[in-house]
Amino acid sequence: IMKIIISSHPFITDKSERAAQKIMDFIETINSEDLLIVLVSGGGSAMLSLPIDQLTLNEKVDYISRILVAGIPEREANEIKKSLSKIKGGGISENAGSSQIVNLFLSDERNHKFDAIASGPSTEKISIDSYQIIKKYDLEGITPNNIKEMIRNHSRQKKKISKKKR
Questions:
Q1: Helix, strand, coil percentages in the chain from 3-state DSSP, rounded to 5
Q2: Which residues touch 164 (CB under 8 Å, ≥6 apart)?
Q3: Is 115:123 a contact under the CB 8 Å cutoff?
Q4: Which of 27, 36, 49, 88 could bridge across to 119 with cysteines, CB 3.0–4.6 Å?
Q5: Half-sphere exposure in the Cβ direction for 110 (13 Å, CA)
Q6: What span, in angstroms and rounded, lies between the C-alpha atoms of 85 and 55?
Q7: What pLDDT tens digit does each residue of the chain (166 aa) get?
Q8: Phi and psi at residue 115, in whole multiples of 5°?
């Protein structure tokens, strides 16, 4: 059975959020014996945008736009995006019922960083302290307090996970 899900690119819209939610709903239904094949391509970051529960899509889009206009490099902006997303930064791999995941990457990503392609929805979660990025680029003044707290909490959780893996 094949299902086509329509999204948007290059702009993040409500279609991006609906498409991401449909993907997340699907991956939660597969079981440990299933093989999940994921095609990841450039542009996927805009096409699948599912903010964390405490944030609306518009709040997330507005904030990411602010930090990009402030001149933060793309790589660092992507790390902040991941901390505010349910799907980016390994959300698919973390929530899939299967541990058998095959990723097919199609991109011109210059450094061959798989977690950078479409913001890495099906790669392994990597522990990045996004709050340090905000501090490094002096973004605290343009970061709403609720988002600062969400990113701080995300960074704390990442540190706990990282310590457990050691």
A1: 50, 10, 40
A2: none
A3: yes
A4: 88
A5: 2
A6: 9
A7: 678 899 999 899 999 999 999 999 999 999 989 999 999 888 888 899 999 999 999 999 999 999 999 999 988 998 999 999 999 999 999 999 888 999 998 887 777 788 888 888 998 877 678 999 999 999 999 999 999 999 988 777 765 555 555 5
A8: -75, -10
- Both tokens assigned to 118: 């479409």
Residue showing tokens 């701080």: 152
Distances (CA, A) of 144 to 65, 66, 140: 13, 11, 8
118 DSSP assignment: G
Residues 80, 64: contact at Cβ < 8 Å? yes
In contact, 117 and 109? CB cutoff 8 Å: yes
In angstroms, the CA 28 to CA 107 distance is 26
Where residue 44 falls (left for φ over 0; alpha for ψ -120 to 50; beta otherwise) is alpha
> Which of these, 6, 143, 23, 7, lies nearest to 86 by C-alpha position?
23
d(CA 69, CA 98) in angstroms, rounded, equals 39
Q: At how many degrees (to 10) do helices 74-83 and 145-165 cross? A: 90
Q: At residue 34, what are phi and psi to the nearest 5 degrees?
A: -75, 145
* End-to-end Cα separation, the chain, in angstroms: 41
